[in-house]
Write a structure and sequence with these properties.
The chain is α+β, with helices and mostly antiparallel strands and 387 residues long. It folds into 2 domains: 173 residues, no CATH class; 160 residues, Histidine kinase-like ATPase, C-terminal domain (Heat Shock Protein 90, 2-Layer Sandwich), CATH 3.30.565.10. Helix content is 54%, strand content 12%. A 5-stranded mixed sheet has the order 4-6-7-9-8, with helices on one face. Strands 1-2 form a two-stranded antiparallel sheet. β6 and β7 form a beta hairpin. α3 packs across α4 and α5 runs antiparallel to α6. The longest helix is centred in the middle third of the chain and has 68 residues.
Length: 387
């Protein structure tokens, strides 16, 4: 047999029932058992529980959300006070009309006519003894009500006020939780929208630069140009189909970066020194796609020179705790500002993506030295939600 956990509204209803049972029903039943099965105590306690429930749910379901939280506090307080007073009057009505009075045989130590066997006659509730001279036995010559019957009305009112405040607090806490849930859903939706927009910006930028490279290559070496076109088709398949499925494995991203670098190598001269290193053994975690591509693309676009010695260094390390990516390239001898508008599309996008995807879980440094452009990125994998 399988048991299903209660969720949502069912769980809420169940908790409400448990709370009322613990706070009112169970104590009333225990008092009833301790009082030699005195039905008066049971009726009094049950009546009070029902009236308290009316006060609670009137505030919880209607008064609090419709008046208190809608800045109609004056009207709310007037309505709440009237509600408590009406319930108090109803409690008094039940006490006066539906419970045995002090002169009823069930309340006094006097058996009914024809039943002179004394107290404890079967079929009658437990009697109360009123002795002559006992201050509780009479008031102005009239029999006094038993303690439960004469419980001051302000006790009922004070308890009602407490229940009213508790209902408002509970409703307010649920409102805050719901607002926080809606806020997180809105942030998640905004995140997904921005990421989709940013990724759509990356792809045209990437294809634009790559097609320019292939066009130049075809003019000088047709065979290499054909090879570049085949390589580009593999990259396009990954970009157009694989990245649409969400996060990708680190191994897939590394394969993509290797293919991209091989494509870029087809157009660089022997004067460009290359230092490419990717990890061989690493945890194959899921990460958002195309995080590192803009840095590599930027290095090949601005870090090579056809007239002077230049270099590109791309290195990655990965373990269970973090991913470390470094990309260093020469300036290319053209004096371009690599942080300016020409390279801004890719770099700005990846900065925004990192801030959205890994808030407080990444460290990025992008800066230009005298002859080099440096990128250092560390992504903290600890406590990252991989769902």
């Amino acid at each position: 047999m399988k048991f299903k956990l209660l969720t949502g509204n069912k769980l809420s209803y169940f908790l409400h029932v448990i709370a009322w049972a613990i706070l009112f029903v169970v104590p009333s039943y225990l008092m009833y058992r301790e009082s030699s099965d005195d039905v008066i105590i049971l009726i009094m306690s049950s009546s009070q529980t029902v009236l308290y429930a009316i006060i609670f749910y009137a505030n919880y379901i209607w008064l609090a959300p419709k008046l208190f939280f809608e800045n109609k506090k004056v009207l709310y307080f007037i309505t709440a006070v009237l509600l408590v007073l009406c319930m108090s009057a109803l409690m008094g009505f039940v006490d006066d009309h539906y419970l045995p009075g002090p002169d009823h045989p069930a309340r006094l130590d006097i058996p009914p006519p024809g039943q002179e066997n004394g107290p404890g006659v079967p079929g009658y509730a437990r009697s109360y003894e009123f002795k002559q001279g006992d201050p509780m036995s009479s008031r102005n010559g009239k029999p006094h009500h038993p303690p439960l019957r004469q419980m001051p009305s302000y006790n009922f009112i004070l308890t009602s006020i407490f229940i009213t405040g508790f209902s408002i607090g509970l409703r307010y806490s649920e409102k805050v939780i719901q607002q926080e849930k809606e806020r997180k859903e809105a942030e998640k939706e905004k995140l997904n929208t921005e990421l989709a927009f940013l990724k759509n910006q990356i792809n045209p930028h990437f294809f634009f630069n790559t097609l320019n490279n292939i066009y130049s290559l075809v003019q000088t070496n047709v065979q290499d140009g054909q090879k570049a076109i085949l390589q580009l088709s593999k990259l396009m398949r990954y970009l157009l189909y694989e990245t649409e499925k969400g996060d990708k494995l680190l191994s897939q991203e590394i394969d993509f970066m290797r293919n991209f670098i091989e494509l870029m190598k087809l157009r660089i001269s022997p004067k460009v020194s290359q230092d490419i290193s990717f990890p061989e053994n690493y945890p194959d975690v899921s990460i958002p796609p195309l995080l590192f591509l803009p840095f590599i693309e930027n290095a090949f676009k601005h870090g090579i020179s056809y007239r002077h010695q230049s270099f590109i260094s791309i290195r990655m390390k990965a373990n269970q705790e973090e991913i470390i990516f470094e990309c260093i390239n020469s300036m290319g001898g053209n004096g371009e500002d690599l942080t300016g508008s020409d390279s801004g599309i890719g770099l700005d996008n990846v900065k925004k993506r990192l801030s959205l995807l890994f808030p407080l879980k990444h460290h990025l440094q992008v800066y230009a030295a005298e002859h080099t452009f440096n990128v250092s990125l560390r992504i903290d994998l600890v406590n990252i939600d991989q769902s």
